[in-house]
Design goal:
The complex is a heterodimer. Chain A contains four helices and one strand. By secondary structure, chain A is mainly α. Chain B has helices at about 5-10, 20-40, 45-60, 70-95, 100-105, 125-135, 135-145, 155-160, 165-185; one strand at about 115-120. In chain B, helix 2 runs parallel beside helix 4 (about 70-95) and helix 8 packs across helix 9. The longest helix of chain B is centred in the middle third of the chain and has 24 residues, at about 70-95. Chains A and B meet through strand 1, helix 1, helix 2 and helix 3 of A and helix 1, helix 2, helix 3, strand 1 and helix 6 of B. Strand 1 of chain A pairs parallel with strand 1 of chain B.
């Protein structure tokens, strides 16, 4: 079952930047999936993750490729 | 700029030399989706950050087990789902939390054919999280997975251990439940 998710139009937002306009006038979503995709697109990944991974990976040696990976990479 | 380009904009890469270029590319392409799934499934930014770190560390250690029978995205999602479920199980054992009763959503009246109006989109993330938090873990996960256009119903079924038809049926109810909850957050 689908539901349209919209926001109220706001004429004051029309001359603002794209981001501001989006905040004020909102967007229209045809279904929940579209809404979640929009949310995902606007949810940045914290930079701390890659920094923590870099630190963690320094203490780990690269895993040896399996026999079949070695075979196919040749 | 395409959506995928927008998603990658400003995203930091793994340090060259620590991992091979393939794993670095996998991280670059999929880390955002993994973080989003963990964030909205767990409902806690710090836990989602920890989970994403742990998932990629686990993936790095297990990369020799990846045979290419599934996509990288599906493989990483499987690790993420298992990791998040373990976290939630431990949490629930401590808090004896019960999920929302699905019967409520079955009987709820949702005006599914009329527009749903919100004043601003800046708090959209909070409203989405609040709505997802009210769903059962299964419904929450199904909605998050189906929102990823890279996954088919068959792949979602494989990830959640059920048939594609079962996924379709449950998604129908999950969408309705989400719509009812989302309306309440307005």
């Amino acid at each position: 079952m689908k539901r349209k998710l919209t926001s109220q139009p706001n004429s004051e937002a029309q001359n603002s930047s794209e981001q501001k306009s989006e905040h004020l006038s909102g967007k229209e979503f045809n279904n929940v999936e579209e809404l979640l995709r929009h949310d995902a697109l606007h949810t940045p990944i914290p930079p701390a993750i890659v920094r923590r991974l870099n630190t963690s990976l320094r203490g780990i040696s690269s895993p040896e490729p399996s026999w079949w990976q070695r075979l196919f990479n040749k | 700029m395409s959506e995928s380009q927008l998603a990658l904009e400003g995203q930091e890469a793994l340090q060259p030399g620590l991992v091979d270029s393939k794993f670095a590319a996998v991280y670059q392409e999929h880390s955002r989706a993994i973080f989003y799934l963990a964030l909205r499934f767990l409902g806690d930014p710090q836990k989602a950050e920890d989970a994403t770190h742990d998932v990629f560390l686990k993936a790095f250690r297990k990369i020799g087990e990846f045979r290419g029978e599934s996509s990288w995205r599906t493989w990483l999602y499987r690790i993420t789902i298992n990791h998040c479920r373990n976290l939630q199980q431990a949490w629930h054992e401590r808090h004896l939390f019960s999920n929302a009763d699905e019967v409520v959503w079955e009987n709820a009246v949702a005006r599914t054919d009329s527009p749903f109006r919100v004043l601003e989109t800046k708090e959209l993330g909070q409203r989405i999280q609040k709505s997802l938090d009210g769903l059962s873990h299964e419904y929450r996960l199904l909605l998050l997975l189906v929102a990823d256009e890279q996954l088919s119903y068959e792949q979602i079924g494989a990830l959640t251990e059920q048939t594609a038809d079962a996924v379709r049926g449950k998604l129908h109810r999950a969408r309705k439940a989400f719509a009812v909850l989302f309306e309440k957050t307005a």
